[in-house]
Amino acid sequence: MNLAHHLVRAARELPELDALRWRGGSITFAELERKSSAIAHGLAERGLARGERAALFVRPGADLIALVYALFRLGAVPVLIDPGLGRAGLARCLARAEPKALIGIARAHLLARPPLRVRVGAGWFPGTTSLDALAQPRKGVFAPLELEPGADAAILYTSGSTGPAKGVLYSHANFEAQIVALRELYGLGRGQTDLACFPLFALFNTALQRTSVFPRMDFARPARCDPAAIVEALQQHAISDTFGSPAIWRRVVPWCAQRGEKLPALERAMIAGASVEPALIEGFRALLPAHGDVHTPYGATEALPVSSLAGAEITGRLRTRIDGGHGTCVGRAAPGIEIMLAEGARDGPRWARSACADRP
Length: 360
Fold this sequence. Notes:
Layout: H1 4-13, E1 18-22, E2 25-28, H2 29-45, E3 53-57, H3 62-74, E4 77-80, H4 86-97, E5 101-104, H5 106-111, E6 118-121, E7 129-130, H6 131-134, E8 152-157, E9 167-171, H7 172-186, E10 193-196, H8 201-207, E11 211-213, H9 227-236, E12 241-244, H10 246-259, E13 268-271, H11 278-285, E14 293-300, E15 303-310, H12 316-323, E16 332-333, E17 339-343, E18 350-355
Helix pairs in contact: 1-2, 2-3, 9-10
């Protein structure tokens, strides 16, 4: 098993389809595959080996996705840390992760205290190699290493919103299970176009042979996004799906309602990262076509999706209870998920009940 096989397959089956788009540019699956292979050759030349960690501080776009899939090919482990943690938080996470390579902006290199074998700069920084100089395009395809399903794939650091940021270790099997669950839960598949308001969702889109569009926004500060820029991307690229935090849509939905804007191509909107009030979901649904809906997947960095609720289900007694302050409904269990609810006790947890995808 190796997640990089998804990009290899997409490049073979849909070579001319755009894998990624951004304002003023795009890259096809075939081009992304070549870029990823070239970077993998360069990293291997500099001694980065299977199982070693590489911290990435690269702005969302083709470089980020190509780098992650290049590391997958090597069997190396990308470390992804939320840039919103601040200087002290970033330095602390870097020290704990103990990466052997750092690829990113100058500020990240200044914070890196552990000894690094490989330094690649996204921009100029003393002692670093540029990404263009690192890549070895003339060497052709870098075949993904064959790994056991439990092999380390990535370390994703939590945002720190519910306590100190911690690194969550994912295996290749973990990611593969998430890809399957997202496909089955929402009908995601090839040829669809997603507005990646959460940049790392583009990793799933690539595996699912979907086009990812990066809007103009500061991804570290979604609550400051420009609604006009988000709507421009949604309309210009005929976006069918989007995934993002409620902070974005609390700005976009009222902006659209005030101007009479509609989103006729948008079929699925997935909002995650915090509780979502029914009023926001209702307002968002009013912008979509009749067959469209707003979904609120529930989970955590450690496990997503655990469950999901569709906006069409928030009616009657359920809507009354949510609006009345009885809590947030997280819906039904996702495909393949079994949920066990535990009540605390001095002699250990008592397992109270379980839920599966076929019942609430």
